[in-house]
Amino acid sequence: MAAITMLEGIRQALFEEMDRDPAVVTLGEDIGVYGGAFKVSEGLLARFGPERVIDTPISETAIVGAACGMSYLGLRPVAEMQFIDFIACCFNQVTNFVAKSHYRWGAPVPMVLRGPSGGGVHGGPFHSANPEMYFVHTPGLKVIYPSTVYDAKGLLKSAIRDNNPVLFFEHKFLYRRVKEEIPAGDFTVPIGKAAVRREGRDMTILSYAAMAHTALEAAERLAKEGIDAEVIDLRTLLPLDRETILSSLKKTNKLLIVHEDTRTGGIAGEIAAIVCEGAFEDLDGPIMRVTAPDTPVPYSPPLEERFLPNAEKVVAAARELAKY
Amino acid sequence: MSRALSRQQHLDLYYYMQLNRQLEDRMVRLFRQNKIVGGLYSSLGQEAISVGTAYALEPRDWLAPMIRNIGALLVKGFKPRDIFTQHMAKYTSPTRGKDGTSHFGDLKVRHTVSPISMLGDLIPVMTGVAMAGRYLGQNIVTMTWIGDGGSSTGAFHEGLNFAATQRAALVLILENNQWAYSTPVTRQVPLKNLADRAAAYGIHSAIVDGNDVVAVYAAAKEAVDRCRAGNGPVLIEAKTMRMKGHAQHDPAEYVPKEMFDYWKARDPIPRYEKYLTENKIWDSAKKAEIDARIERELDADQKFAEESPLPPPELAEEGAYCEGCHKIEADWKRPKEEVMPPKSSIQPEWTVPKLGGLDADFIAKAEIPGAKEVAAGNDRASSAAPAAAAKGPAKPEGKSESVPKEDVASAPPLRVPFGRGPKDKAFERERKERTERGRGKRRKR
Question: What's the N-to-C CA distance of chain A in angstroms?
């Protein structure tokens, strides 16, 4: 079986779920005739028709609001943000209408809101963002950010079948850069479970999305220096897999967190608090983090390269941590 | 007497309006006794709108109230005890104390979506409900309300525009009660009639005296019928007056006294009572009977609410997620096969006129070479969009009044004085070297 890209994996998940369940519909800007800005939804309209693949006006609030309304009648809409940065336009619908619905009045909202996120493609301040933490801070939502083709497909299927609103971040740098052979047929990946990508003894490197690959690359280099790092891919940011984080830390006693999101209010801070609460006695060194600086994502390549964490920055931080 | 309504229906309208008013009147007293936990928003003088519009819906139809639409909730089948307990934050309330006021709903029986406090957001949501209803073959109509103030939100415009493009079965009642908190409508919207906004979305609209329940019902019924027939959304502006402040705490001293006097003389309930009497639809005995029934029901429900417990504190931490507590199932009223391949499959092309949305008048005046010839066949929709574009609208050539070609050609190429782009050869070379050294490379799997 030939290897496929992450983009193809996501597309397969959409096709298979729409084939499986007529309650699954999609809506978004340019997703139909054009096939989506990144061609994720290419072919969907031809197969499922305009009732299930809905091209919308440029109205993020209308897209999310309508998806929410559809879900009240038992549909399972998958709404696309053309770029996840645009989710800021419908922040109120997502955080106040959708997220609070089940808690306030017992109305589940089984919808998925997905879109391309992240930097590394010179998209500039409005096409490169990682806004996941606004939503990790919003009870009622689930937040998924996969790094592999298998996970992207399996987690999107789980998200569509979930009874809660799920935000599904697709790192656009990975869309066509990661390839993987995945099993034929239906499979899902559970929401809320992290994956140990590399076992190690000396320290735990926690990451997700594109930075999971960076962390692995750094770990291979560290291995040559005699530092045996365990690499964990969070995969789901909300709910966080505390157990996997804490059990790894109990083994390695040191923690380095890597994320492409900016530093202040990034998930590293939350994980540090979880570790301090749950495994303080096990820590042999400070919890360290490698993140983007507290700035917007810059446009020009040298600026963006400076902005983004990379393997070298991770290796440097790991060396410091290894000294403890 | 309206021929559209039976005697019983006429009496129903009175019952719901009076129930609405007496219920709120009791809540004002409860508020003064500190038994209402949060704010209390009055719909005094606006009862005819809530009741008259919601009464035009059928049980299968969906609605989503705003803060001053308690009457609509009563018509849809909620009981006074739901309203009392919501306001008193009781465990027996529809939200078990998690939210207050009219912020509750019912997906299964009463088909009611709970509002949120941010205005306008219900419009796209109810558009989605209407779209899903159509998709499932349920032939439903959705209804929601907005105020003069809320009609300035982005969600109002995004929602109404989307509803219009989708021809969604959405009836939007714009209650123009003259005031958005303390700001008069004349300072919010530069229009005499807010219904004029419908023109911007190409949808049907109507203006109605919001203090005449029979007129309101007639307008709503027509709108609901239009929607159900598939003619797209309708905007109804109901002109009325908010007779109290924004909420209980607000004495509304900013409202001219004349304005209150004018509208008090047009109070919808005495006005309707007079109508019922003049048209011999009821007599004083019937009125007394209905009023007594209302008192009885309110007595019982108020007692129930006052005696209900507050929620247990630990409830605060429950229910942010559905963890299997709901079974989600769509109610299909059409064969599922219709939306599954092969029946759902199509040729994915736009069907657009050759010159898109340009109208004939514009083309006639624009004097674009070749355009008129194409326009002659413009109403013939072209389904093969790309091909039509190639041979279709002739590109404007020559005769341009803008920058002559030579100027563009002879201008020096734009060059950003600092930084380097991906097409910069030096930059590419350097990056390649760095990649070979193993820096800044992402792992590929």
Answer: 46
Distance CA B279, CA A269 (A): 72
Express each pLDDT in A89-140 by its tens digit: 999 999 999 999 999 999 999 999 999 999 999 999 999 999 999 999 999 9
User: Which secondary structure element, helix H or strand E, spans residue A11, and what is its range?
Assistant: helix A6-20
Cβ distance A62 to B339 less than 8 Å, yes or no, reads no
* Extents of the domains making up chain A: 4-180, 195-322
DSSP state, A319?
Answer: H
Instruction: Report the SS3 class of residue B236.
Output: strand
Q: Is A122 a catalytic residue?
A: no
Kindly list the domain boundaries of chain B, sorted by start residue. Answer: 7-317, 346-384
**Positions of chain B with pLDDT under 70:** 371, 375, 377-431, 434-435, 437-445
Q: Which residues of A fall within a CB distance of 8 Å from B311? A: none
CATH architecture of B7-317: 3-Layer(aba) Sandwich (3.40)
List the structure tokens of B188: 């919010």
Query: Which element (helix H / strand E) includes A229?
Result: strand A229-233
Residues of A in contact with B133 (CB under 8 A): 73
What residues of chain A lie within 8 A of the CB of B138, using their CB?
73
For residue B288, the model assigns a pLDDT of: 98
B254 interfacial to chain A (CB closer than 8 Å): no
B132 with A72: Cβ contact below 8 A = yes
Tens of pLDDT, residues B108-160: 999 999 999 999 999 999 999 999 999 999 999 999 999 999 999 999 999 99
Q: Which amino acid is at A200?
A: G
Residue B91 touches chain A, beta carbons under 8 Å: no
Fold annotation for A195-322: Rossmann fold (3.40.50)
The CATH architecture of the domain made up of A4-180 is 3-Layer(aba) Sandwich (3.40)
* The pLDDT of residue A232: 98
> Which residue out of A102, A122, A127, A171 is catalytically annotated?
A127
pTM of the model: 0.90
